[in-house]
Automatic annotation (TrEMBL):
Lineage: Bacteria, Pseudomonadati, Pseudomonadota, Gammaproteobacteria, Enterobacterales
EC number in record: 2.5.1.18
Protein name according to UniProt: glutathione transferase
Species per Swiss-Prot/TrEMBL record: [Pantoea] beijingensis
Keyword hit for Kinase: no
Domain of life assignment: Bacteria
InterPro entries cross-referenced by the UniProt entry: Glutathione-S-Trfase_C-like (IPR010987), Glutathione-S-Trfase_C_sf (IPR036282), Glutathione_S-Trfase (IPR040079), Glutathione_S-Trfase_N (IPR004045), GST_C (IPR004046), Thioredoxin-like_sf (IPR036249)
Reactions mediated catalytically: RX + glutathione = an S-substituted glutathione + a halide anion + H(+)
PANTHER family: GLUTATHIONE S-TRANSFERASE 1, GLUTATHIONE S-TRANSFERASE-RELATED
Gene3D superfamilies to which the protein is assigned, alphabetical: 1.20.1050.10, Glutaredoxin
GO molecular function, one term: glutathione transferase activity
Length: 223
């Protein structure tokens, strides 16, 4: 049976969603973050990097969200629930699958880090300076870059209901985490199509089951 090594407030929520969409049997092994917000050392017993998401399927250990989603689709989507037939949709799905972690999430992780530079674990004496520096980096660089990505995503979703095009795919599952993080850290008030997309994914039955299995994600404290 597939085991999801699930770290609270982590990207592994997407893996649970994929499994629920495919209605596959699986089990969850829960891990809790340390006070530093890092994963516990026990995860290194599963994968050398000691991070989540990671799954085990028999003797195979698979890490990285995109690799896990592609693996599950390729091996277990025997009913073609998420499979795409149109070549352009396949291309779009592949692009957004990699864009999520390659382009968008690094900016959102940096935004979270710089927003916390005036807080623990930064030493109390340096917090005022850290807060000022963090705000400066966000204002001078990060926020401007994030706006570009907001416009890029909104333009795409103004044309298509899903990231691949007309059909729901693993690209939507992959993009769910960064778009939720974007909504929490920068807001999507000026992104009506992205907001509609977020509402649509949260209405899916599989998504509702994931909330019960994995719990809510607090995006204000997740990197």
């Amino acid at each position: 049976m597939i085991t999801v090594h699930h770290l609270n407030n982590s990207r592994s929520q997407r893996v649970l969603w994929m499994l629920e969409e495919l209605e596959l049997p699986y089990q969850i092994k829960h891990y809790q973050r340390e006070a530093t917000l890092l994963a516990p050392e026990s995860l290194k017993q599963v994968h050398p990097l000691g991070k989540s998401p990671v799954i085990t399927d028999g003797n195979r250990v698979i890490a990285e969200s995109g690799a896990i989603l592609e693996y599950l689709e390729g091996k277990y989507d025997t009913e073609y629930r998420l499979a795409l037939t149109d070549e352009e949709e396949k291309f779009q799905s592949r692009y957004w699958l990699h864009y999520a972690e390659g382009s968008l999430m690094p900016l959102l992780v940096m935004k979270l880090i710089f927003s916390r530079m005036g807080k623990s674990p930064v030493p109390l004496l340096f917090r005022p300076l850290g807060a000022a520096f963090g705000k400066g980096v966000q204002k001078g660089f990060l926020n401007k870059q994030i706006v570009i990505h907001q416009q890029f995503i909104e333009q795409h979703l103004a044309t298509y209901p899903w990231f691949a095009g007309q059909h729901f795919s693993i690209a939507d599952i992959q993009m769910s985490f960064p778009l939720q993080a974007l909504a929490a850290r920068s807001g999507v008030e000026n992104m009506p199509h992205a907001t509609a997309w977020l509402n649509n994914i949260q209405m899916r039955a599989a998504w509702q089951r994931v909330k019960q299995q994995g719990g809510e994600v607090n995006f204000s404290t997740r990197s």
